[in-house]
Amino acid sequence: MVGRRSVWSDARVIAASASFVPAADEVWRLQQNDDPECRWFRSAVRGAPDAVAGSMQGTYVLTTDGELLGRINSANPEHVLKMLDGALSKWRSLNRERPRATAPIITLPDHRWEDSYPSDGLALERFARDVNGPATDAPSRPVNQDAVWFAAGELPGFVPSSGNVGAVRDVAPGLIERLTRFAFVDNVRGQTLPFSSKAVRVAELKSEVTAVNEKVWTLRLWGRTTAETDGSDPGEAYWKSNRAWPRSLSTNIIGEARWDATRERFLSFELVAIGARKGRTTFNGRHREQNAAPHGIGFFLKIAPRDHRVAPTYINLYGAAWVKMPE
């Protein structure tokens, strides 16, 4: 998140990146997993395919056949620019006639969470931001992103069974619980833990048909959530906190969506959730705050662009049959 804000938003870095083919990936799997893709990456940047116990965060420049031209781990755009310039100079000086491998190296991964992208379902972008003071105050920075995915077969769980104006339903429990546990978490300033199912105290969301235009229904959504834990149950994330951090997060939700009843898919979907958080986790950047004091937090969810297929952070915990798990 710091890199996105300080480096990749810099106009000079954006201009320089036009000479490269940018790609982003989750560093934990690259340094830990044993599939061909991850072993190829570690071999290219470290000279050995073995898993790494520490962190391999950073920016890397590689040729398509795996030659490392530059690397850096910095949130300073000046330093990153210097590395990119050096890597580009190396690329321009490469011998284009040099021998290349006669057979391609097989680097396809055994599994990626993006393989579960719900192309016929609902893929939402989720933004989290601190909310301080009155509603008229300018929102504070920073802001962080995530995603929430729902498969096509789950979508009717958001929609009343009747297309009559005034028809209301409770959104299916599993859908609002997914938001409560995995979307409404405090990663505004860094990495955080999900909530376990035991931490969910309130998970309510209602949907009402407010207008009908032929086969397109306009829906009003509203509800509330509360999750609270003493920290003894970390929520089954890949990594564990260095201690039990008590924390809670509550929201009030409002939203609107447009549902195509013929194709059974959403044409638009927007939710705003405003609430309060307490506590912290190991890496979420709240170490300077009073843990027991409540702080405002807000979330905005909307349909993601079709080319935005970054998987949700906690998709491995969805417990849904449509999510492809590693073998």
Summarize the SSE layout with pairings.
Layout: H1 2-6, H2 11-16, H3 27-32, H4 36-46, E1 59-62, E2 68-72, H5 77-93, E3 122-130, E4 143-150, E5 168-170, H6 173-183, E6 200-213, E7 216-229, E8 247-260, E9 265-279, E10 295-303
Antiparallel strand pairs: 1-2, 3-4, 3-10, 5-6, 6-7, 7-8, 8-9, 9-10
Structure explained in plain terms:
This protein is an alpha+beta fold. It has two domains: 2-93, no CATH class; 114-317, no CATH class. The chain has helices at residues 2-6, 11-16, 27-32, 36-46, 77-93, 173-183; strands at 59-62, 68-72, 122-130, 143-150, 168-170, 200-213, 216-229, 247-260, 265-279, 295-303. The strands form two sheets. An eight-stranded antiparallel β-sheet has the order 4-3-10-9-8-7-6-5, covered by helices on one side. Strands 1-2 form a two-stranded antiparallel sheet. The longest helix has 17 residues, at 77-93. The mean pLDDT is 90.
Please describe the structure with a list of short key phrases separated by commas or semicolons.
single chain; 327 residues; alpha+beta; 2 domains; eight-stranded antiparallel β-sheet; two-stranded antiparallel ribbon; 6 helices
